[in-house]
Amino acid sequence: MTNSILLVDDEPGIRKVLSISLADLGYTVHSAENATQALEIIKEVRPDITLTDIKMPGMDGIELLKAIKTQDPDMEVIMITGHGDMDLAIESLKYQAIDFITKPISDVAMTVALNRAVERIEMRRRLNNYTENLEHLVEEKSRRLIEAERLAAVGETVAGLSHTIKNIAGGLDGGIFVLGKGIEMEDATFLKQGWDLVRDNVDRIKTLSLDLLNFAKSDRLEYLLTDPGEPAKEVFDLMKSKAGDHGIDLVLDVEPGLVPVLMDPSGIHQCLLNLVTNAIDACLASDPTVSAQKIEVSVGASQDDGIVYRVTDTCGGMDEPTKERLFQRFFTTKGEKGTGIGLMLSRTIVHRHNGTIHVDSQPGKGSCFSIILPRKNGLTNQMV
């Protein structure tokens, strides 16, 4: 590649002679009689190399060197100096001039200095090309890795969903078989057992379908300024009767004076409903003589001025292995009654609010699920 060069010298004779010599060496030559004119040419044509005299009227070569390096640190600058200006020449090296040559200028000295500048320019070009190619390579590898991770996630999801559907289908087959026996034998007990199995598994299908629909909608949340207590009050009103029917004391505690927060109210409602439903199921599955059957839903301010929701129960609790798997796809502690989507959905909704969800639990004592939403979460009042 042909390199361009800017020659800066206040003496017309020197500019003319050096311009001819530089052109003979294959350079595209631009010339300036002072530093001000040189800076204007640099803005217009951006030469690869600047060859400038140190001593010039007005702005001298050192000041021009500083100005060039400020605008374009990669431009190579060679200084021209007299024998009596060696201190200035050495000073120019401190300001990143690549070399200096002394007057009278010999062809050998100028060629050596120019070759050094060209070598650095070519090295920089190769390094830039290598870096650019490396960035493209990393981008391509990253894209393939993300694609592989997505495919793995899809495979895991399909496998989990297939397992859940297989369990439901097995339950339906069992119910149909028992119903058939009841009809064949005209046995009311078999009929009732078969009907209960069919009804329970149909309910599981409905629950699975709703969970999948809610999960699909979790990436289209509508964020509105909302009273943080409203979703909790709605869930409390919805579930209090069911909890009471099973002898479970469901209580609500909302801290007064909470400031409205930008959130998707139906999404947070869904999260709290999942947690309260799970807590009721945990109470029903636990030994009522071990601890009191109580669930508390609380809403308050967090330490960083955000909002924290807590659903605390005194029903059974979980061990560490169960806690570690709790938010995995299709993992459930409810046996054949669970779909394993509710907590996965809740975590997705909370993460889309830039929040966190975690659980503290001890076997035999109970569990506490916490949802923390930051007040300054970067969300906008729109469909996201």
Characterise the protein shown here:
The protein is of the alpha/beta class and 384 residues long. The protein folds into 3 domains: 102 residues, Rossmann fold (3-Layer(aba) Sandwich); 66 residues; 156 residues, Heat Shock Protein 90 (2-Layer Sandwich), CATH 3.30.565. It contains 10 helices and 12 strands. The strands form 3 sheets. Strands 2-1-3-4-5 form a 5-stranded parallel beta sheet, with helices on both faces. Strands 7-9-10-12-11 form a 5-stranded mixed beta sheet. 30% of the residues are buried. The C terminus is likely disordered.
Features of the shown structure:
single chain; Rossmann fold; 10 helices; 384 residues; Heat Shock Protein 90; 5-stranded parallel β-sheet; 5-stranded mixed β-sheet; alpha/beta; disordered C terminus; elongated; 3 domains
Reconstruct the topology from this structure.
Blueprint (H helix, E strand, L loop, with lengths): L3 E5 L3 H13 L3 E5 L2 H11 L3 E5 L7 H11 L4 E6 L4 H9 L4 E4 L4 H79 L2 H30 L6 E3 L2 H17 L3 E6 L6 E3 L1 H21 L8 E8 L5 E7 L6 H6 L16 H11 L3 E7 L3 E8 L11
